[in-house]
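This section describes the prediction task in plain terms. A model, or a person checking by hand, is given the sequence of a single protein chain and must write out its three-dimensional structure as a string of tokens. No templates, partner chains or ligands are provided. The sample shown here is typical of the held-out split.
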Amino acid sequence: MLLNQTKNHKWICMFWACISGLFSLSVQAASQPKMITVSKGFGLTLYASDLGDAKQMALGDKGTLFVGSHRKGTILALVDSNQDGRVDKRYVVAKGLDNPEAIAFYNGDLYAAVDERIIRFKDIENRLRRPGRGKEVYDRLPGKTNKSHRALNFGPDGRLYVSIGAPCNVCEAEDPFGSIIAIDIETGSSEQIASGIRNVTGFDWSPQDQSLWFADLGRDWMGDRLPPDEINRVETVGGHYGFPYLHAKSVLEPAYEKPKNLKITLPNYELPAHVAPMGLHFYRGEQFPPRYHNQMFVAENGSWNRSSKIGYQVVMLEIENNKVIKRSPVVSFLDGEFPVARPYSVLTAPDGAMYISDDLKGNIYRLYYKETINEKSEPEPEQDNE
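The expected answer:
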């Protein structure tokens, strides 16, 4: 087994022992093996591979894992029928779609955002072999652009929440670009939940108080350290979160002046610039130790225009009294300047493990807890700072 440990032994590299023999990983360059690092007590296995650019995930009532893509144009369904921690059946729910990365599952049905529409695949887990064509349930989304990413998730109120990114690096975009809206699928009515956002593909509700949190990516081309990426909490419906006038808590946009009467809601927490927090999910399982329960996990997709790479990891953000107080790495896919994977989204598995999608190599990883650790005697994980 390849080891990559800090001096205080808080990290263990898992590569050969956990992954070899399940699938073939193309993570070697110049015959040098590359490292995946996980926090002590955890293990990582390859749940599925060869999925294209695996983006957002949704979990069915029967444990089916659905995966959307951006470039490949497919929605896949993955089944672990013998529950051995690896996929043994896969189905194509749809293909030839235009960027079907945003998907959600609710009451037996699968939903996907495609172009200006949201389509629904009824009773999908009972029709995996012959899912049929998705039927339109909403047709008033703005047209998709290369820079405008979206995400879907059903809220505690039963409405379908849709994030609609800005169609630019920085601009004054027309509504509903740069917003999160909530749609009543039955009536078609919608409500704007948040505006002034740039690029949100990860949002979730706290299991403790049902408040909505979302991650927002800062603009590019302001240097290696500006502006910070953001973690936001919705405290007032309809609030404005600064884009394009204010980035993070204090970085003014030189190209646009903030309207005088505009009230901006500042981020709850600032992440390092360019870590690209694509996925955000509250852990709802019990397999992990208690300190991880109901805490926020963020998939940092990684930097693409920074002089040295940052991100490419899954972190836990510890929340206390509705404030993020600590950021701790759980899985790192960055070996020096070499990214082994680019985590895009995270999701609690039925057995309490966690799925991690990778849009670099088209993999789904399964993060699980493998050791019984005395929480009182075990040192806390290091906070990961830039």
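For orientation: The chain has a mean pLDDT of 88.
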